[in-house]
TrEMBL record:
SUPFAM superfamilies: SpoIIaa-like. It comes from the Bacteria. Gene3D superfamilies: STAS domain. InterPro entries: MlaB-like_STAS, STAS_dom, STAS_dom_sf. It comes from Streptomyces tabacisoli. Residues 108-131 are annotated as: Disordered. PROSITE patterns: STAS. This is STAS domain-containing protein.
Length: 131
């Protein structure tokens, strides 16, 4: 039995956060969709998504992350994925060939407020990545 999805949202025009834990699939898609709708309504300068607690993610999670990236980019705003991504999410992005799409979004630590992307040699999912 999979762990149920938990989604926590903090909406703020400067920095909004979404923390996702548990297993994300089509049965729990509505939780992620609702969270994104709430955040997009305030049009934050930075949307930070923490997926380090995701145990399983399928195309539903990938679609939500791509939607967040597209929406933030089209508004000339920033998406930040808190590092480490976690094994399940890093595997999802690697298998689908989208890891490079999100590479510049990954930030170390708890807050991307300075707007700087993850630097060379930083960890992605707990593993060193060659740049």
């Amino acid at each position: 039995m999979r762990a149920s999805l938990q989604v926590t949202v903090d909406c703020d025009p400067e920095l909004s956060t979404i923390v996702v834990t548990g297993d994300c699939d089509e049965d729990s898609e509505y939780l992620l969709t609702e969270a994104l709708a709430k955040v997009f309504a305030v049009e934050p300068r930075v949307l930070e998504v923490d997926v380090s607690g995701v145990g399983f993610g399928d195309s539903t999670l990938l679609h939500a992350l791509l939607q967040a990236l597209h929406t933030q980019s089209s508004r000339q705003r920033r998406l930040a994925l808190r590092s480490p991504l976690g094994e399940a999410v890093e595997r999802l992005l690697t298998v689908t060939g989208t890891l490079d799409v999100f590479e510049r979004c990954v930030v170390d630590g708890a807050s991307p407020q300075d707007g700087s992307p993850r630097g060379p040699g930083a960890t992605l999912g707990g593993h060193e990545r060659a740049e």
